[in-house]
């Protein structure tokens, strides 16, 4: 059984789907949690947990809540594609407040990044963790920025951070794309535990996907270094989902799926080569 951290863990985005799952998981494991979200927490509080309703843009409150915490699990912010003005506040300025809190408290940051930071890579590729960012919208762009912020805080201030490029974290896969990108709630929770309890992390990336046989898109990350291996798989759903595709050629070509086709206005597909700037 994994040892319980000696210091509290600060959990942002606690009222969201992943936050609620993680709060229960960690609470049941005996962890002390300091939780926050802009929305009220809808469930009974876990033992040894506190909750404060707060906006990530309120830097003073974020700094106060992080006091004495050994790790910050940052799930908060806009979690879907939205206009730029809605993303920039919580996902950019809010993340700055998280990293300033981590710098002051010497905390490790576990950042909920996303596959949408690399969403315009094609599904025929096999990407190492240090691949080029190709965000598929303003949300994905904010996640790429967040990973870069983590690198800067590591090299400049020594703030350890793990960037979880989450695939499709949900109760079960619902389409053919998720046969590759699916991340079970249990695998996600075990991944966060590994990130918090690892002896050291530096600034690293872990692809957030379960043990799916179709998951050939992503490779060469830091999972072995932090001691995590996924236990679940989308494979049992293959028979019912293999043919469940959108019919949208943009969505089906790129790893980011529907985030790529949302608002897509090119007259033709983007060039296949990463550095092909010849246009249509």
Question: Could you walk me through the main structural features you see in this protein, from its secondary elements to its overall organization?
Answer:
- The protein has a single domain (9-261), classed as Rossmann fold (3-Layer(aba) Sandwich).
- It has helices at residues 17-28, 59-65, 84-105, 138-157, 178-181, 185-197, 223-226, 238-241, 249-253, 258-261, and strands spanning 9-12, 33-37, 49-53, 71-74, 108-114, 127-128, 161-166, 168-169, 182-183, 203-208, 218-219.
- It is an alpha/beta fold.
- The chain has 10 helices and 11 strands.
- The strands form 3 sheets. A 7-stranded parallel beta sheet has the order 3-2-1-4-5-7-10, with helices on both faces.
- Helix content is 34%, strand content 16%.
Could you outline the blueprint of secondary structure elements for this entry?
Elements: E1 9-12, H1 17-28, E2 33-37, E3 49-53, H2 59-65, E4 71-74, H3 84-105, E5 108-114, E6 127-128, H4 138-157, E7 161-166, E8 168-169, H5 178-181, E9 182-183, H6 185-197, E10 203-208, E11 218-219, H7 223-226, H8 238-241, H9 249-253, H10 258-261
Parallel strand pairs: 1-2, 1-4, 2-3, 4-5, 5-7, 6-11, 7-10, 8-9
């Amino acid at each position: 059984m994994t040892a319980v951290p000696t210091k509290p863990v600060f959990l942002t985005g606690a009222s969201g789907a992943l936050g609620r799952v993680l709060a229960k998981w960690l609470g049941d494991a005996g962890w002390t949690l300091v939780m926050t979200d802009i929305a009220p927490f809808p469930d009974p509080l876990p033992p040894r947990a506190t909750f404060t309703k707060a906006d990530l843009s309120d830097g003073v409150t974020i700094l106060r809540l992080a006091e004495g915490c050994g790790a910050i699990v940052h799930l908060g912010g806009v979690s879907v594609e939205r206009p730029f003005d809605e993303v920039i506040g919580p996902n950019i300025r809010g993340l700055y407040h998280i990293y300033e809190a981590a710098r002051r408290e010497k905390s490790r940051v576990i950042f909920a990044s996303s596959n949408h930071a690399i969403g315009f890579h094609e599904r025929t590729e096999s990407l190492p963790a240090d691949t080029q960012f190709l965000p598929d919208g303003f949300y994905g762009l904010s996640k790429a920025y967040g990973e870069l912020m983590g690198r800067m805080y590591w090299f400049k201030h020594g703030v350890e951070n793990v960037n979880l490029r989450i695939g499709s974290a949900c109760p079960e896969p619902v389409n053919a794309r998720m046969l590759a990108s699916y991340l079970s709630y249990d695998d996600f929770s075990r991944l966060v535990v590994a990130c918090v309890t690892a002896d050291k992390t530096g600034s690293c990336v872990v692809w957030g996907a379960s043990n799916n046989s179709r998951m050939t898109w992503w490779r060469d990350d830091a999972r072995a270094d932090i001691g995590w291996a996924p236990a679940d798989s989308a494979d049992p759903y293959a028979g019912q989902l293999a043919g469940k595709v959108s019919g949208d050629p943009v969505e089906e070509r790129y790893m980011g799926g529907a985030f790529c086709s949302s608002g897509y206005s090119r007259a033709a597909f983007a060039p296949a080569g990463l550095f092909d700037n010849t246009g249509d």
